[in-house]
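User: Hey, my collaborator sent me this sequence without any context and asked if I could get a structure. I don't really work with proteins. Can you help?
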Amino acid sequence: MKKFRRSGRLVDMTNYLIHNPHQLIPLTYFADRYESAKSSISEDLTIIKEMFEDQEIGLLLTVAGASGGVKYIPTASNDEIVVFLEDLCQKLEDPNRVLPGGYLYMMDIIGNPKLMNEIGRYFATMFANKKVDVIMTMATKGIPLAYAVATYLNVPVCIVRHEHRITEGSLVSINYVSGSSKRIQTMSLAKRSLKEGSNVLIIDDFMKAGGTVRGMINLVDEFQSNVVGTGVLVEANHQEERLVDQYISMTKLSEVNTKDKLVKVEFGNFFEKLKQMKENE
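Assistant: No problem. I've predicted the 3D structure and written it out in structure-token form, which is a compact way to encode the shape of the chain:
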């Protein structure tokens, strides 16, 4: 790589850090990359750190010692998330979204890369201090959101499916009770998708009774792994006992009147859970 001036180093280093979140990068890597002294690299990182914090882009953590380095942790401010969720709730309250059974049409939101990218960053903010090895989601609508979260946490995604795919090899399958219909269904995950002892973050687009999420939790147990958190984009107000107690929701579908096409959406428990996590740190 050609020799950079400081301005060039700052741009290139910032770009590298943003595209490699939650990865410990030795200072020697940047020193070799730019043919610069470690002292110069440290000064550059101080400038980037101040900029990240001032613009609320994230945190830049420095780890001392021979095996140390620098790590970028993407975050978002509460004010930014509030503004975003207010707009999202307004979008979701469109009466034309009402579907039979109290569900909402959400494909225009799930299919919007910009929206998914922002939501992924907010979930990554929530779970920034958790040891996450892999994101798990259910095909198909949860996939875009799962990949958005995985991008900011810099971890892979494993996809649970109802149907068998020969290209995925041998599977681990379980039966679970669909929370809304009470029907027995089957979900499967390729054996190669999840290593034993993995820390799994479950991400889904919509949760009503929680049957699908409960099924994924049970599936994680089959792999002798651990669920470190569950995040859902929309939780529906459910009169019966929910099958999942511990979860974090961005929004809550508090009322749906299919006859009058009335939809009410409010904030989920995101900020409540975020406050609890900060108090426990």
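In plain terms: The mean pLDDT is 92. You can pass these tokens on to your collaborator as they are.
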